[in-house]
Predict the 3D structure of the following.
Amino acid sequence: MFWIASAFLLLIALAIILVPLFRYREDEEQDQSQSLNVYKAQLKELDGDQKNDQLSAEEVTSARLEIERRLLKVASTPKEDKTETTVTKAARPLLVVVTVLVFLGSYGFYLLIGSPGMPDFPLDEQKNSAAQMTKEDAKSPEMISEVAILKTYLAQKPDDIKAWRTLGQLETDLHDRPEAAKAFQRWHELDPNSIDAAVVYAESLIILSDGRVGPAALLVLNRARKIQPQNPGVRHYMALAEYQAGNVEQALASWKSLATDSKPGAPWLGALNRWIRKAEKELGVQSTGSRGSGPALSAEQRATVADMSPADRAEMIKSMVARLQSKMDANPENIEGWFRLAKAYSVLGQKADAIKAMEQAMKHAPDDQKPQVKKQLEILKKQE
């Protein structure tokens, strides 16, 4: 059946190419004959109009000259056209031979290197197909059903904290990051004193921002730090915010301190050690191991900060933020700078100023960065 079908298709392809080639001259001659007949009929009609006195002698003479001119043009074939026609006629057999050879050559080449007997690969058996992924993850249909049931339930009982937490976990397992963040946000709003709700919600915002600790996540983390300052999740993400802001030494010191305080075998140590090694590599310092506690700041620097009163430390932070604001006013095209400024205002609890910073980032951001800036701005405004 394969050979019969392929031969049939080959004949169809040749017909599509060659038939119009032979019909072209016939159509051309037919068109010429029809044009001659039309002009001859117009001359007869012109004679009838003259006999019926519908046209004056001058109008008849002018029209007759124009029709005769067109008639002569169609009837006479210039020498160049005849030569061209002769060449075209001579080239047709050659074109037919070349076309047939190309098709037969392609056919033979396929027979040489092709595998017509190889069976096809059904779509649902391919590794990355939706059908195969659904088969491999047998829980997906069940989880989708659970999500639908939970949403129906929460529409009637929107204050069920446990249900919102479960919904967020299911949406996370289904890789629906925006819906997971919405569910965790509701959980955090209903239970603002829960450290777990705060950390999980902040983490969902970070995931939603492709790993960036944005201003909105930073606000949540700062509130969580007031509830439980030694929480490992809070400490890690606060250090990550420092790292992303360019304060690699401070981030490394915080991560090492967390590693020292963690119990052996803690589930977060693997990821934590990878961040430590990455920061050490960027700073060009020798690795001190996963549980090392060597500070990135000098003893003199730590002593200076430690000796400050809370008011002095707050004043120092405000002065740093003011300097950063001045730099951004002078160079508004620095989008990363606007992110850092928004984070700084978030640390100080100045939400309105953080929003203004992100609005400036949106104003000056290139097109490829605007979606990320817009996402952070929307999240910040929801936190008001």
In short: The chain has a mean pLDDT of 76.
